[in-house]
Design a protein that fits this description.
The protein is α/β, with parallel strands linked by helices. It folds into two domains: 161 residues, Rossmann fold; 296 residues, pyruvate-formate lyase- activating enzyme (Alpha-Beta Horseshoe), CATH 3.80.30. The chain contains 21 helices and 19 strands. Strands 2-1-3-4-5-6-7 form a seven-stranded mixed sheet, sandwiched between helices. Strands 10-13-14-15-16-17 form a six-stranded parallel sheet. Strands 8-9 form a two-stranded antiparallel sheet. β16, α15 and β17 form a beta-alpha-beta unit. α11 runs parallel beside α12, α12 packs across α14 and α15 runs parallel beside α18. It starts with a strand and ends in a 5-residue tail after the last helix. The C terminus is likely disordered.
């Protein structure tokens, strides 16, 4: 049995800014987990990260055909699902009997839509993919009925069939350590043409899931709001192994890394005690940002932390069900700064239903009122799987016609809701406040210069990007003038 996997590049409809945010910048860790598990079961596996390798759709299809697999899997998001379908179509032209499988968030919430629209797709894996892919590979290899496999949706003649959902994996430590050597691409967390991690870089997972129920996030529906941590020992051993392989910089992809303060402080203690020469990036909730925790992560090598601040308006935060306050955000940023984290990024979402222009501007200004290094402004979009998508369907803002138009790539709330600031106006506001934040504040620029001179991490990043000024300027120009939507 041979299983080939492709992490597809961005849909052609996306702007280059959107394409540069994530796709091809980080190793496809979920795909690596599945491939490693199958390989350990004796399945031959091959992987391609299309964007990271710079393959065209035609080249990716040729790669897949050259592998001569018994099944071909795609890990697709809303930003890459159409590309996956186009590659699959070209592969099917040469091998019409090859089973083609889609998985990940986009596939989970659009399983029947994908199978109805794309005849080249045969099977959709819903939710967590490891155990389902393992059973699917065994079933395909033995030629057994697909109905026995939990957690899939598939086409049988003209009928689309969904099997019962598969229970979540309880013990994350039972999964194998993903084999990064299965991918040949080199990753540096590229954003807007700039390298964010110049040393040998990869991603790592220390927990799965999130107990919160933010209305703009569909991930919690996949995991039923359940958070499952890996043990400190297992996470540290993976870090130690990867450091021995030369990896120096990491991104923790956890949705809720800082949920258990005691666990993360213990992990940081091990990193510090064993003197691992590593630097890392993570996300954190502002209501978890105690000084003890922030100081622990800073001492253990955390160089960049992302806080989901979202809004400066409590009314909007309550609508999002974020369960934080602007005061907590202000305090968290100051605490992380005092604790010694090098770069603090704040993520903001504007354009919520009924959010006024004044509320949007209050949020955009808030980024300047707290000591952030980088703000990320996003225009609220809705996708299948989000609570807001379901709300819009129930309230008539998403008719069947509109749903059929937007299910694949989502749509900005401001293009649907009659009482939201127009999309074009929100973009102009974002452009204005980005320029104001980065260009029109001399004191901020001087402060950033001083912080850079004192930080080896910052100086390394600056030095690495000096030769990339042209591409960075092009990326920045588009970022502040064209699109900042999700």
């Amino acid at each position: 049995m041979k299983f080939a996997f492709i992490s597809p590049g961005a849909n052609v409809e996306l702007s280059s800014t959107e394409k540069s945010k994530v796709i091809g910048s980080w190793p496809p860790l979920g795909m690596l987990y599945i491939a490693t598990l199958l390989r350990d079961d004796g399945v031959e596996v091959t992987l391609l990260d299309q964007a990271a390798e710079g393959y065209t759709i035609e080249a990716a299809a040729r790669w897949a055909c050259k592998q001569r697999p018994d099944a071909l899997g795609f890990s697709a998001l809303a930003s890459s699902g159409k590309t996956a379908a186009r590659i699959a179509e070209k592969v099917k032209q040469n091998n019409p009997d090859l089973p083609i499988v889609f998985g990940n968030y986009y596939a989970t919430f659009n399983d029947r839509r994908i199978l109805a629209k794309y005849p080249q797709v045969d099977i959709v894996v819903r939710g967590e993919g490891e155990e389902t892919s393992r059973e699917l590979a065994q079933t395909l290899d033995k030629g057994q009925p697909l109905k026995k496999v939990e957690g899939i949706t598939f086409r049988e003649k003209s009928e689309i069939i969904s099997t019962p959902p598969r229970p979540l994996i309880k013990d994350i430590d039972s999964l194998p350590i993903p084999d990064r050597q299965l991918l040949s691409a080199k990753y540096h967390s590229n954003v807007l043409g700039a390298i964010g991690a110049p040393r040998k870089f990869t991603t790592i997972l220390s927990s799965r899931g999130c107990p919160y129920h933010c209305r703009f996030c569909g991930c919690q529906r996949i995991v039923n709001g359940i958070w499952r941590p890996r043990s400190v020992e297992a996470t540290f051993e993976e870090l130690q192994m990867l450091a021995g392989q030369g990896y120096k910089q990491f991104l923790f992809v956890d949705d809720s890394l800082t949920l258990n303060r005691k666990r993360i402080i213990e992990l940081c203690r091990r990193i510090t005690q064993e003197k691992l020469d590593i630097e890392w990036i993570c996300e954190g909730r502002v209501n978890h940002a105690s000084y003890e925790l922030m100081r622990s992560v800073a001492e253990a090598g955390c160089k960049i932390i992302y806080f989901g601040i979202e809004s400066a308006n409590q009314r909007i935060l309550d609508y999002y069900q974020k369960q934080i306050t602007p005061q907590q955000s202000r305090k968290a940023v100051k605490t992380a700064r005092r604790a010694g984290v090098d770069i603090i990024v704040g993520s903001f979402i504007v354009g919520a239903p009924t959010e006024t222009r004044e509320e949007i501007e209050r949020t955009l200004r808030f980024a300047q009122e707290v000591p952030l290094d980088i703000p990320q402004y996003n225009i609220l979009g809705v996708f299948p799987g989000m609570a807001i998508w379901d709300e819009f369907k129930a309230n008539g803002y998403l008719t069947r016609e509109l749903e059929s138009q937007y299910w694949e790539m989502g749509v900005a709330v401001s293009n649907l809701h009659p009482h939201t600031v127009p999309y074009s106006e929100i973009k102009k506001l974002i452009r204005h406040y980005y320029r104001q934040f980065f260009i029109q504040r001399p004191s901020f620029l001087l402060t950033q210069l001083a912080r850079t001179v004192r930080s080896f991490f910052r100086m390394t990043v600056v030095k690495e990007n000096l030769s990339r000024i042209g591409s960075i300027r092009r990326g920045w120009k588009e970022f502040v003038s064209i699109d900042a939507s999700e």
